[in-house]
Amino acid sequence: MYSNLVVLNYHQKSIIMSLRLGDKAPNFKAKTSEGEIDFYEYLGDSWGVLFSHPGDYTPVCTTELGKTAALKDEFTKRNVKVLALSVDSVESHHGWIQDINETQGVEVNFPIIADEDRKISEAYDMIHPNASVNATVRSLFIIGPDKTVKLIITYPASTGRNFQEILRVIDSLQLTANYSVATPADWKEGEDVVVVPAIKTEDISAKFPKGFTLVKPYLRLTPQPNK
Fold first, then answer.
1. What's the pLDDT tens digit per position in 113-122?
2. Which residue among the candidates 19, 43, 61, 175 is catalytic per the annotation?
3. CA distances (Å), origin 51, targets 21, 26, 171, 196, 207
4. Is 61 a catalytic residue?
């Protein structure tokens, strides 16, 4: 039913083998655990997190979906909408959700996409032949309100995702999208940030009135500008 609904030129796909940062995220329509959705319409003006799972009833992914549900308020305050994806059916998803709710002490509150024909997985390069020819690898995409890809992380099946890191990256992406700064190693919300090289040192004070620290001519730190 949905074989022609992914908005992607599959002839191009044979040339452009995978999405890269800054690429437009392919739009799609799909069946989910919460009904049919259009991806772009679902996101609206929000940021998005789309992450895949090899299949339903997998142990590590069960804990991840539970953690995602538990962090609902954290995603909401950052204007982020979350979607998970598996190649199993909506019926299977509903059974798995019951297990997640029971074992993780949550209520799953976001759609899980049923990508049974693997069209979305192919569009997002979620199937890696070296890992599996018929199940998705554990990829995660952060997508901006402009529908471009801001972050891609692929995890091995044996390692659960670090959702505090995902939130940290969203904080950095949202901050750096609005101010001429970058975030240093291990940065967390509220800490000093790096003034981008495009701003001359003599112009920093006018742009960042909280002041700055000159560590090296190319390394200038300033308090987080929106705090």
1. 999 988 998 8
2. 61
3. 16, 14, 18, 30, 37
4. yes
